[in-house]
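On clarity, I found the account of how folds are encoded harder to follow than it need be. For illustration, here is how one protein appears when written out as sequence plus structure tokens:

:::
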Amino acid sequence: MISAFRYILLGLLFYCMSGNIHISAQAVQTDNAVVELISEQITIQPGQPFWIGIKMDIRENWYVYYRNPGDSGMPMMVEWLHEEDVNIGEIQWPTPKWMDVSGGLTSYGYKEQILYIMEAIAPAHLSPGEEYTLLAEADWLICEDVCIPEYADLELTLLVTDGDVEYNEEWLPLFAETRENLPVTLDYWEATAEFEGNTATLTLTNKAFDIPGYSEIRYFAKKEGEIENGAPQPFSVDGNTITMQLHKSTYKSGDIDRLWGLIYSPEGWDDSGNIRSMVVDVSLGDASIITGNISSMPVFSAGFLLILAFAFIGGLILNLMPCVFPILSIKVMNFMQMAGHQPRMVKLHGLVFGLGVLLTFLALAGLLLALRAGGQELGWGFQLQTPAFIAFMTFLMFGLGLSLMGVFEIGNSLINVAGKANTGSGMRGSFFSGILATVLATPCTAPFMGTALGVAITLPAATALLIFAFLGFGMAAPYVLLSSFPVLMKYMPKPGAWMETFKQILAFPLFATAIWLIWVFGQQTGVNGLTRLLIGLLLLSMGIWILYRWKAIEISTGTRIVSRGFVTLFILAGFMFSAASQPVTIQNEAGISVSYGIEWQDFSNDLVNQHRADGKNVFIDFTADWCITCKANERVVFSSNRVKDRFEELGFEMVKADWTNRNPEITQALASFGRNGVPLYVIYSSELDEPMILPELLTPGIVLNALDQFIPAQDITQADI
């Protein structure tokens, strides 16, 4: 303790003797980085510009992302929290590194150390001698073999002066090094571009000096989804002209009309070879554009293989979504009871479960494609837009829950499969659980899955079905693997009396699912339809009570026939009465609803087009009441006061495209963005050449970062490079 106290005193003494009393900043240590808000200056002058930066020392072998992260990732996002009227420009992004990551993906980012610099202008009303404090919240994704979202609350205090500016000698070299790594515009290079099919040809010409023999040239797009990040970028040099081939991204629905990015070469772009990155911003003339179509994409091209990979990953992630948990928890219980049985039988159950998942994905996809070919405007999860299907699923979840609680037994079906796991009769239960898991998964659109579905719906039927098959493979993979390797079963708990308690506990997720379905049904059909469903569940309960009261082994044949007849009558009558409910649209005369304190206008193409014609910013939330991901995003993002205030400050018109019930206009709008399901978040602005599409999983930081670029021009001091 005395030794530690001595070190503290020595540190304070050194700090005071150094004279460095004008600047205060505290580095933040996360699990994988040390982050600090720093300034090039120790003192600042009222109304004058100065440079600040977020310095990040990155853990060995880890990396963070460029403004365009490539095939996956999220760049640094900064939210300024101080209240003073200070103008802070956009991040000036240094030239990134090209990184091949797992899964055949390509990312753009930084390793070891990075300084994100920004120009700021101090408020003019500051008084000499006072201290000025900057506050920021930084969010980023940092990756090695796994990716981890991190954040830090940063603070920097500077002294205001009316005299000469005092610079921070510690950070001046780092700011200078960062500026040297920024791309620049060189007037003596001319750029032209042509687009033919799925290939963009970039031509660079220099008439100022003889160019060197370039060994490496890389193009980094500044916008996501423009070019194929991992595709080769072949180039050739002919005299003083460089010709480079770039491939259009498979995620881009329209044509490339602009190449906006930077060109890097270690040989440099100036006569001395010191400038290694230069800005390229060239629009493609209409005459040189030949429309490309995603349906012409080769089946085994790198782009299509990437789509298949996304489908597989999306299927894997579906297992983590709350939509799927009720049924998969039963499958886990089934595996537990199979522990100790013959490995061959365990493996067979896993394969049958996977077969149920795969065939159901293909069946739903085939039905979806067939109906769309017949002129129906449908998308992923279309069956949940039908009240009859919601009623059926509610009956099923409620009935399975009662069975797990021991109210009645369903013979050799799903719930009884655990007791017959070592017999052939249990195979029907494994197959059925695969079907149920897939059907319950359809309200969810997992990360990576939305892109795969959007592409699938534009492709020929056979190719589209292959994408859906990979979704099924991904979802079934963990259970097939668990059952295929008996050594893993050693880690499963052994069967015992506790299994009965565990089985009853599993009933509660099913009841929770039933409650959610009841709520969705009420949203679709109104209070009258909800009442009909509750009456239907009452009749189902009466049928199950008869089944329990007069058990088959305890009554005569005649009584069994009569009682089972009443059971069938009550259950069918309840279902038919519920399924007869019709969808209703509930809205006020103005077409406005209020959610989380935000006034939402009901979607229509005419409404959106009118707002755009008036030069207004528009935010569209494509959602549905049965979409759990949508509801989670809404609760996290739209309940944030910072997000609501920013939308209001920028004058956004908030539009909600509610896809809970079937709506051809919304389905067509989704298809126009290359999507086939919800959630989808779109921003229109006169400042954008194309609509901005936000990620499927949102946080307040992601939305705020997207909205920052719509701050009026007079509030930005330096153009984005």
